[in-house]
Amino acid sequence: MTFRNFKMVDYVVYGRGAFNQLNEILAPQRKDDAPMIFFVDHYFENDAAFLARIPLLGKDKVVYIDVTHEPKTTYVDALRDDLKDEFGTISGIIGIGGGSVMDMTKAVSLMMTNPGSSADYQGWDLVKFPGVYKAGIPTISGTGAEVSRTTVLTGPVRKLGMNSDFTPFDQILLDPELCKTVPVNQRFYTAMDCFIHCVESLTGTYLNAFSKAYGEKAQDMCEEIFLHRSDWDEESDEKLMMASYAGGMSIAYSQVGVAHAVSYGLSYVLGTKHGIGNCIVFDKLEEFYPEGVAKFKEMVKLHNIEIPQGITKGLTDADFEKMIDVSLGLVPLWENALGKNWQEQMSRERLRKLYEQF
Ligand code: NAD
Ligand code: ZN
């Protein structure tokens, strides 16, 4: 097919306080006495007031998701095994947290009904059966994981998503109030994932009017809150949540670019997390994205954010080679960024010089 026919999220509810409607939203999805499982970011483990708002019924269970490291296929498989052992069948999984929890929720939902290991499904359209009901409730904005058709997992041989029509959520609940406790630096790193998605999509060769419409709006909203003001209020959280949604929609029909291709290499070898990794890389990409990087640097300064430096110092040749392999393997990203003849422009030597700057 020439034009992608993409599956989107089925239901969306947006609004400050919308979390209070969760019980009502879930009621029709409950199957007899099969429980709903709530995957909750471990940040909330000690927040009794928030936990009391989760609408638990019958055998429902809260599972805290450890997001110290980005989601791994082994973690997905282990949670799936635990749920099957304890309950047999479940009504669904509700993910409450950041991009990591969104991805864990999508992946475990799919693995409840697909045999084998999640590592078997890293790639495009390998998932065979719809998962159990899944809902995403972001508590930090920027990744666009709430709308995407992928779930990024680190497996035994690759860091790659389970991209499929079965991957998008059945329901998302966007309540900006849930983001009020995000620390300033983390908020910036994850928000810049959205800003960078927009720059990469809007300057890419895959761009069309669909992507442009969402990408421009998302980038504008990021700039309204980070480039044109240095303070933060409720409206900023509201705008950032919608920027994340629109940024994700922009990517659905296009692709990310150099910053993502390069930061995946860092992440694979050094475990650098996605948001901060993108910032470390984007900071040095003037030659590819002059306007976007100039704005990024202004936002970093205005919000007093620290971008780590020198993280590849002391790495071995083998480490650099691995990072280069991982990065150059992401063909669609390079092609979107640099065009069909990207290989003539991005040699291993040039990429090595870039990695040495971080
Ligand atoms: P994250 O999910 O790792 O969360 C970042 C930190 O913020 C964590 O320490 C978390 O505990 C904390 N946190 C979350 N909500 C909070 C709140 N309300 N108050 C206080 N702390 C809170 O980070 P992220 O940047 O949201 O997501 C990154 C992940 O998303 C990566 O694994 C990346 O691969 C994935 N990702 C997926 C897609 C996709 O389309 N599926 C797209 C981009 C990124
Ligand atoms: Zn990203």
Please give a structural write-up.
By secondary structure, the protein is α/β, with parallel strands linked by helices. It has two domains: 11-179, Rossmann fold (3-Layer(aba) Sandwich); 184-356, Dehydroquinate synthase-like - alpha domain (Dehydroquinate synthase-like, alpha domain, Up-down Bundle), CATH 1.20.1090. The protein is 45% helix and 11% strand. It is built from 14 helices and nine strands. A six-stranded parallel β-sheet has the order 1-9-6-4-2-3, with helices on one face. A three-stranded mixed β-sheet has the order 5-8-7, with helices on one face. Strand 2, helix 2 and strand 3 (61-65) form a beta-alpha-beta unit. Helix 6 (209-226) packs antiparallel against helix 7. The radius of gyration is 20 Å and the shape is globular. The mean pLDDT is 96. Residues 12-176 form the Alcohol dehydrogenase iron-type/glycerol dehydrogenase GldA domain. Keywords: Oxidoreductase.
